[in-house]
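Structure in, sequence out. Go:
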């Protein structure tokens, strides 16, 4: 049975869910890194995460990462794909701007990039190779986190958090409203109440 306090907490979380922002995690080697990204998604109100397992062993996001996701895995929806091309074609067809996170000469600093699109899909690659060539070519933009130290990279889940916080910060200041509609919120409150 849900207490009134629990229902209020669910309503508050649902009212902060973002529409038009999703994350694509491509071929993550360590499922715990992927679930740490999911924890960030929940914290920022990102409801849907796409997992691609084209070259790495697939895993069930509902069954893994209890400690790394801190139960966030219960509150986020997943779509699992076995093809990068199919996933990204689907998102493009839904009107998402595909933003690849990567470290290359053509990538723009996240602090110099405008994230005002109504629909953005942030693409995150695996720990060793980054994003596949397919993902890089299908993305409309490449972004990176500027580094000031000797090491030129961060842990993949930390990188995802930094990028997603910047995207969310900008969207909050630019878009009039990126919350779910009242009907979507009502549906999600009902769904969360069953989880």
């Amino acid at each position: 049975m849900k207490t009134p306090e629990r229902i209020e907490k669910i309503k508050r979380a649902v009212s902060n869910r973002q529409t038009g922002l999703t994350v694509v995690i491509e071929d993550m080697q360590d499922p715990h890194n992927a679930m740490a990204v999911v924890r960030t998604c929940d914290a920022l109100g990102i409801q849907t995460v796409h997992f691609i397992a084209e070259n790495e062993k697939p895993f069930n996001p509902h069954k893994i990462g209890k400690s790394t996701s801190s139960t966030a895995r219960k509150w986020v929806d997943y779509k699992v794909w076995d093809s990068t091309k199919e996933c990204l074609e689907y998102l493009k067809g839904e009107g998402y701007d595909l933003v690849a996170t990567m470290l290359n000469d053509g990538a723009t600093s996240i602090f110099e990039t405008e994230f005002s699109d109504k629909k953005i899909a942030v693409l995150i690659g695996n720990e060793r190779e980054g994003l596949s060539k397919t993902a890089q070519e299908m993305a409309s933009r490449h972004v990176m986190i500027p580094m000031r130290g000797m090491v030129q990279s961060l842990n993949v889940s930390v990188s995802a958090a930094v990028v997603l916080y910047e995207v969310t910060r900008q969207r909050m200041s630019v878009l009039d409203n990126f919350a779910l509609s009242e009907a979507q919120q009502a549906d999600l409150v009902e769904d969360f109440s069953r989880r």
